[in-house]
Amino acid sequence: MLEIRLTPPSHFIPDETLEPPALSASPQIHLLSWQAWRTTDNKGELVSGCFELPTTTWAPDADALALGKLQETIAGTAVRAVKFGDLAVTGQRLLRPGTERTLAGHGEVTLDARATQGFVLDTRGHVLVSCFALCGDANEPSRCAEAVHDARLPSTFVAPPEPSLALRAVLLLVHHPNQTAAGLLTLTLLAGAAAIATRKRPKRRR
């Protein structure tokens, strides 16, 4: 099972009150792991989580959307954990394949986060894995940042699956709408003509 390995600072204790985000709106996404710790004075929170999405098809254009969804999840977790979720991407590294991002936020509480995303293979086939570690502490932000920096996130990924014919058609329509629309119209006309030409005609009475 994929998970994040990290060492909470000594003034953090397990927090069982911070639950993982609700996934009812996205039933195809499953929770892999979830851990949370808080400071004894409730002014800091350390959270890690991993999610998975089995899929048989993918396209490079979907990478940005998936990373954006992961960032939304991190920001939403930060809002619930420390009431502040204004995070910005401060760095991105291609793992070839896969992607790692660092994020930070500065407000009443300084936030530090790291996230990785990529595909793994199991008995189901290709599975998109998204993981993150987030920490914010009003009193000792440097120790929070160190815990996130030292966290071991999944980083060994495989190449994504090939796009299906249907997905390729959609991508072609998005990038070349005029040419694709004309091509689809031609195919539709040809298909209609073929249907007319090959349909059975009623027998004439003699």
Textual characterization of the structure:
The chain has 206 residues and is α+β, with helices and mostly antiparallel strands. It folds into two domains: 12-150, no CATH class; 165-198, no CATH class. The chain has four helices and seven strands, in the order βββαββββααα. It has helices at residues 61-82, 141-150, 165-175, 177-198, and strands spanning 12-14, 30-39, 44-54, 88-94, 99-105, 111-122, 125-137. Strands 1-2-3-7-6-5-4 form a seven-stranded antiparallel sheet. α3 (165-175) packs across α4 (177-198). The relative contact order is 0.17.
The major beta sheet can be summarized as:
7 strands, antiparallel
Order of helices and strands: EEEHEEEEHHH
Q: Return the domain count.
A: 2
Structural class: alpha+beta
Shape: elongated
Could you give the order of strands across the largest sheet? 1-2-3-7-6-5-4
Question: Cα distance, first to last residue?
Answer: 76 Å
Helical percentage: 25-40%
Poorly predicted sequence stretches spanning 5 or more consecutive residues = 179-190
Alpha-carbon Rg, integer = 24 Å
Task: Please outline the helices and strands.
Elements: E1 12-14, E2 30-39, E3 44-54, H1 61-82, E4 88-94, E5 99-105, E6 111-122, E7 125-137, H2 141-150, H3 165-175, H4 177-198
Helix pairs in contact: 3-4
Q: Quick recap of the structure?
A:
This protein has helices spanning 61-82, 141-150, 165-175, 177-198, and strands at 12-14, 30-39, 44-54, 88-94, 99-105, 111-122, 125-137. By secondary structure, the protein is of the alpha+beta class.
